[in-house]
Amino acid sequence: MKKINDRAIIRVVIATGISSVVTQLLTIREFLTQFQGNEIVIALILFNWLILGGIGTLMARVLAKHSRNPASDILAWFSLVLSALAVLQILAIRGLRDVVFIHGSSVGFYPTLLFSFLIIAPYCLLLGFVLPYSLFVLRTGIAGYPAARIYITDNIGDIGGGALFSFVLVFWVSPLTAIFLAHLPLLVSIYLLFAHSRRNHPVVLTAVLLVAAILAGSIGLEHISLAPAEGKLVYYRETRYGRIAVHQDQEQFTLFEDGVPVVSSQNLSIAEEAIHYPLSQLDGMQHALLISAEGGVMAELEKHPIQSVDYVELNPAVAAVQFRFGMIKKIKGLKVIHQDGRAYLSRSKRIYDAIIVNLPEPNTFQINRFYTDGFFELAAKHLAADGILSFSMQGFDNYLAEPQRQKLSALFNTAAAHFKNVLLLPGQKVFFLCSNSKLNPDIPAALQQKGIATAYISGFFYGNLTRERIDRLNSRLDSATPKNTDNSPYLMRLMFSQWFAKFQTSPLVFFILITILSAIYLVRVSSEEFVLFSTGCMTMGSEILVIFAFQIYFGYIYLQLGIIVTVFLAGLLPGAWLGNRVHHRGKQILTLTDGFLIVILAGFILAMLNFADQLPVAFYLTFGFAVSLACGFQFPVALYLRGSDSAAATRGFSADLIGAACGTLLTSVVLIPYAGILWAAGGLIGIKLISIVLIVTGGRRN
Q: Do 454 and 557 belong together in one domain?
């Protein structure tokens, strides 16, 4: 094999890394939007992505073993198909969601898992296949070509893709444009790889141009593929914080953020309740803080003699769209602050008479952070002596289901630790009024005394919210329910359980199946492969820890998701390079790096225990880089100990991917929701302790 062809293959590997990371991040985004998802959905996509990649890697070994010598032309054709699959995958997510599932309905755990598995399977299987296959092609010309070198080369492309997405594409282009731009280097590399063989040049050129045309042509489908099944799409924009869209149905406009309807232009009852329930309790109110907004709230605020209103909205585009489509209006004394609400309070010294939280239920860690002990403590410090905090949860008709009772109880117990009086008002939503002053449940009478006219409250309050119903709800709260804290999010556990209860399913069957399959796999691997399995588990488990912690303490993830992924990829490259230089020291290196990983995670636990809400972004990124550096260091060492033939290489790649998949699932679906971030970190430490034991005792070798 000529040297120039070696370089051509390397270019394809690097370009594949660039395009695959961009495709992965955009795929996660699409699933979050189409399935109104949370961090659990992120975990399911990553799990499927990694497990399918591991299967694809093993398929490459089988094909190479039972076919003629691997050829660069075959690699080029596979890579060309991979490019076309990327855009088809994004369009399939958008187009098939409402075909497979009822439009507007929520989707359970198992359907989400299966749908995502089937949609991304073609792309991920082929992606997992092409990396080891490129190694086999190189080894047909250069016997003994180092597997660690192809691993390093792939990391270079991955880092490039993460950086391209995080610092360029997320700011400037829409998803299908991003797919096109990210695949241009791969298409050029494929053409150059074909050109080296000088065979079927017209056919090759036509094929490459056809795929390029498919990618470019898909850009014109951006708005069409996002059109709603009902009404019409009148506004769409990709922002650094997520996707926003406005749907119009007759005279009503509804704002969607990442697929979730958040504000409507015609929702008088909710607007009245959100504003007048808390403000009816105050005399001489001057300053109010709104964290996000319901449609029509500003018009209701105008009815009160208020001097200033600070409206905090993280995404500037969201506030602009609400004003543009008349969902909220500009009023006297209004100041719009483009910042995360909790971050704003942590830095502000301003005191308010009322803090009104207009956010959805805490079904994500990003939203949950406004319903925790830490937030209530922060809000209490920014309220006047007789000030009030208000927020709401989903309401109920007559029957209060046990999961919802526990959810309301957890919130009551958490808020009651910081406020002397907490009153729950049932209805379309259950409103929480929290204050150190006495609270009056007779809202219409309090408003009438102030001379404030309302349409919904004055006409329907007494019929819907009888004193008996209010007392019954407040008396059913369970004082033994745990509080909801940042590091141990009890509400997220309840929301997760509610997700399964809604569809009369349980995650237990899935977990048992995964445990059995993992046990069968692990008893068949060598100690070196278990190290790579545990290393992949540690890397992705730590990445999930950082993603969830970032959601909790900073409140937004889409802008930073690419950066976090890039940092975790960036550490693998120098780690693998250093490990390749000292791989001859073998088990000693593996033991030391396992110990280093345990120390890093122990430091993470101590930092979260003592300084969680004070840690800067740089802490999480440094932690991620250190973890990935150590994990990358181990890969070439474990390959050296296991042997460097093609079979060992594919088993090593596969062990890393399968371990990463298990780490993603274990951390996000089991450890964090049920045990909290700190115990999740402890669980990852336990996996690495097992790894050390196997290294020291010698383990088993296949």
A: no
Identify whether residues 213 and 333 lie together within a single domain: no
* Overall average pLDDT of the 174-196 stretch: 91
**Tens-place pLDDT, residues 324-348:** 998 888 999 999 999 889 889 988 9
Show the tokens assigned to 692: 């050390």
249 & 331 share domain: no
Instruction: List alpha helices for 66-174, DSSP H.
Output: 72-100, 109-141, 147-164, 170-172
Q: Enter the tokens of residue 14.
A: 């690097």
Start-to-end CA distance of the chain, whole Å, equals: 32
CATH of the domain at 413: 3.40.50.150
Contact by Cβ (8 Å): 461, 276: no
Closest by CA position to 260, among listed 106, 68, 114: 106
Q: How far is the C-alpha of 563 from the C-alpha of 546, rounded, in Å?
A: 11
Which pLDDT band holds residue 176 (cuts at 50, 70, 90)? Answer: very high
CA 168 – CA 181 distance, rounded (Å) = 11
Residue 68 lies in a domain: yes
308 vs 80: CA distance, rounded Å = 59
d(CA 207, CA 212): 9
DSSP string across 431-497: EEEEESS---S-HHHHHHHHT---SHHHHHHHHHS-HHHHHHHHHT--TTSPP--SSS-HHHHHHHH
Residues 130 and 63 in one domain: yes
Q: What is the CATH number of the domain that holds 547?
A: 1.20.1250.20
Q: How far apart are CA 503 and CA 372, in angstroms?
A: 27
Report which residue type is found at 382. H
The pTM of this model reads 0.84
Mean pLDDT of 403-409: 89
Instruction: Using DSSP bridges, classify how beta strands 383-394 and 421-425 pair: parallel, antiparallel or unpaired.
Output: unpaired
**Domain shared by 331 and 199, yes or no:** no
408 & 427 share domain: yes
| pLDDT of 498 | 77
Q: In which band, very low, low, confident or very high, does the pLDDT at 68 lie, cut at 50, 70 and 90?
A: low
Residue 313's domain spans which residues? 267-489
Asked whether residue 502 is assigned to any structural domain, the reply reads: no
23/266 Cα distance (integer angstroms)? 38
Pairwise CA distance, residues 104 & 114, whole Å:
19
Q: Please state, rounded to an integer, the average pLDDT across all residues of the chain.
A: 86
| Residue 558 pLDDT level (bands cut at 50, 70, 90) | low
Distance CA 347, CA 339 (A): 11
Q: Answer yes or no: do 394 and 329 share one domain.
A: yes
**Domain count of the fold of the chain:** 4
Model confidence over 242-277: pLDDT tens digits? 788 999 888 888 888 877 788 887 678 889 999 999
